[in-house]
């Protein structure tokens, strides 16, 4: 999974063409497009998980775990 995320991170950061990235990572362009399609179909769910964890983390930092007086 991390392999796919590293590849997609480089793609979204425009760190090379699809052809260059596929050559660098040793995959076919067909496989790249399958992974991109999978990412696009699940990104809301995955990003929602990240949003939830960020919200929870922010609460812990801001409130120091205390509910009273925390906004």
How would you characterize this protein structure?
- This protein is mainly alpha-helical and 71 residues long.
- The protein has one domain (2-63).
- It contains three helices and no strands.
- The protein has helices at residues 2-12, 18-25, 29-63.
- It is globular, with a radius of gyration of 18 Å.
- The chain starts with a helix and ends in an 8-residue tail after the last helix.
- The model is unreliable at 55-67 (pLDDT under 50).
Q: Tell me the span between the first and last alpha carbons.
A: 37 Å
The radius of gyration computed from the alpha-carbon positions, rounded to a whole number of angstroms, is 18 Å
How do the helices and strands follow one another from N- to C-terminus? HHH
Relative strand content = under 5%
The DSSP helix count reads 3
Give the overall pLDDT as a whole number: 77
Q: Structural class, please?
A: mainly alpha
Number of DSSP strand runs? 0
Question: How would a crystallographer describe the biggest sheet?
Answer: none
Tally of distinct domains: 1
The shape, in one word, is globular
Q: pLDDT below 50 for ≥5 consecutive residues: which ranges?
A: 55-67
Helix content: over 70%
